Each structure stands twice: as structure tokens, then as C-alpha cells.
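Hi, does anyone understand the following?
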Amino acid sequence: MSEVNDVTAAEQVPPRMRVFTAGPPSAARGRVRLRTLSNLRWLAVGGQSAAIFLVYFGFGYSLPLALSAGVVAAAAALNVVLALLYPASHRLTNREATIYLAFDVLQMAALLYLTGGITNPFALMFIAPVVIAAATLNLGNTLILAAIAFTSVSLISVFHDPLPWPVGEKLLLPTLYQAGIWASLVIGIGFTSIYAWRIASEGARMSAGLAATQLALSREHRLASLGALATAAAHELGTPLGTIAVVSRELERALPMGSPEAEDARLLREQAERCRAILARLANPEEATLGATARLPLGAFLEDIVEPYRGDDLAITITLMPEVEGMTPPQVWRAPELLHGLGNIIENASDFAEAHIRVTARWNASRLLISVEDDGPGFAPEIFERIGEPYITSRPGHYALGDTEIGPTGTLDKHEGMGLGFFIAKTLLEQTGATVSAVNPDSGGARVSAIWPRGTIDGEGPPGRGEG
């Protein structure tokens, strides 16, 4: 019973409103674990130690060994301290991760200052902490790390000890060449960090959008399962309730008329027959409130979807147009993906329509097309090319993820206008084998169309997941 109540409560919230909310970034844990940064730092400590000892003892080059070893030991000491303070699975906040990565940048700068500055071939390692930040932190923290790296590169390009070299020899690189090394480091840090941040941001947004899609589809499947469960329960309980009705009727006849026992037997029979009537309605999917998945004629299927969105100020017309006159309308499966996907598109159209929405269905022997067209302002030009991506919205006064956010933070909750409705609809319809497109027709408004090969949603079995 509690499961039914949970589903009912969830369904009271419109599907497009149950998406990721954007909470304060500083209040939530980040995307990187302490163990990850610690392991990378140990790897850096090992590589730096090997390079220093190889240059000093293997090649016999002169360098400030004690100071260099001290800088490397500082990184090892930080790892030891963090291992004592936190468990390895500790997930760092964005601020903590920024501080630890800034330490890595400054530690690298100090080591390079002692060993030739940017003329040291290992100056390229400046890129590593910034790229890690770009892939795991928000844009603000990434810019902080990039600024520290740029400043460090600039300082050690001017102030640094000589590059370790054989005794009695000096390697003097032309000033213009050193300027080229500085420029390549700055450009490399900037380009790789921006690229890593964009890829990480798109991946995080897509993952969050798909999670919301799975949540919506799971909810629809639970409703369909409840309908099937109600039908099975009606079938199984029909026989014992019939037995109760027969026995109560026999008791009613055997007991003296007007006696309290006879009245109880009559009441028992009436309530048993009432239960049987309720179960009979549940056993009929067309009469059940949560009917099991079934096939409906195309017109009835579309009426079932659009009915909740009709109102006094919004007219929704459905037009069936066979491409060959006399063709029978197809029987379409009431699959959860279709109900939720087309429902989201119609809901989105109703939010922007001025007064009218046209739902048109066309079919022939090879394809079935359903289009939803409204008389609203149409899709905004600035988002038209990105329609179908998660967190893309043109609703005035509503929030979607900005370009400076790597992905959604917080939990699943009610939040309207996050730009997930069309993404969820498109994803669900493509899982049934549809090709979804959106245009602004010359007549005005917006039109969203879905095309299926015949047999995908009107075949012998319910539609499966397409490859879209």
C-alpha cells in the first residue's frame, strides 16, 4: 500500500518539474575524491625524485639537491597529513580541491625555479593540475588555478636558477626562444583547460539529463505495472469473493428473517458483491484508472494524451490524414515512452501557444508521422541549433544551467523551466524508434514532428528500445 501512495504522490507533480535543481555549489561535495589527488601527487613525487637523482647522480649535473629534495618532500608531507586527517574515500569540496591543486602548481613552480625555470623540459607539467581542475571543478575555480599557473610560468621565466648542465658549460637560450616557450606554455594551459572543461561540462549535463529521463520512464513503467497488478488482483480475488457471496446468501436464507444474524449475513453478501464489482472494473483496462498497456486506435490514443491540456483558453485539434484515402488508422501501443514523450511535447506547446495547438497524424504503408504545432512565438533563434540538448530553455524568468556551470548540483526535486522537458521527450521517443525534429514553420509558431517506421509502435508487440 505504501508503494501505491508513493507513486500517487509522485504523480501529483508534473513530469517536467521533477528535474535537477541548482543548489549552491559550495554547499555540495565536488566530483573528485581525495584518493585520486593523493595518488596523482604520489606519482608526481616519484617522478620528480627519480628525475632529480638521475640528473644529479647519473649525469653528474650540478643542482641544489637539498632544496630540490625539500620541495619534493613537502608534497609527500602533504599527502601524509591528508591521509591522517581524512579517509581515502573523502570527497573534496570545490574549495578544498582548488587549494590542493594550487599547492601542486606552486610546488611545481618552486622546483622549476631551482632547476632552470621554463627552459627545463618538465615545465610542460604545469598543464596537469589545471587540466584536472578543468575536468572536475566549476569555471570559477578553474580560472583561479589557471591564473596561478599563468603567474607562476611568467615569474619563473624571468627569475630562476640556471638549468643543470655539465660543469664548466652553460646552456644559453636566445631570449626570443624563451619567449616562445613561455607563449607555448600559456597557450597550452589555456587551450587544454578550456577543452577539458567543455568536455567535462557536456558529459556531466548529458549524464544528468539521462538520469532524469530514466526517472521519468521508470515512473511511467511503475504506473503500467500497477495497472497490470490491479488486473491480476481482480482475477485472483474474484473466486474467493464469489465463494463468500454464496456462503453469505445461504446463511441469510437459513437464519430467521429479521434477526440480527440475518442482517449481518445480508450485509456481508452486499459488501462482497460490491468488492466483486470494483474488481470487475479494475480487470477492464479501458475502465481502470491505471490501466495496463494496451493498443488503441490512433485517434483515441492522441485524445488520451491531449485531454489533460485542453482548457477554456487553449484549443487542441487532432487531425488524422492517411496518405492513401480509406486506409484504416493504425492501432498504437500505450507504451510509457510514447505517453510521456508525446505528453511532454504537447505540454511544452501548451506553455507557449497563444490559443491553439494542432496535432496532426499522417500515415502510409511505410511510416507514421505525428506532429505538434502551436501558434506561439516559435523556438528562440539563439537556442534553435541546440534544441534537444539537456538544460536548454528559452522560458523568460526561468533558470537553466549557464555556460559557467560544469553540471547540475543538488538533488532531484521540483524545479520548473530547467530545459529538460524536450530532452526527455526526444530521448524517450527515440527509444521507440522515432526520428524527432523541430522547426519554426513559415506560418509562425513551432512544430515538433516524430516519424516512426510502420510496425515499431503499431506492430504486434509493444515498441522496444530503438537505437536512437
In short: The first strand starts at residue 18 and ends at 20. The chain has three domains: 31-172, 217-283, 295-453. The two ends are 37 Å apart (CA to CA).
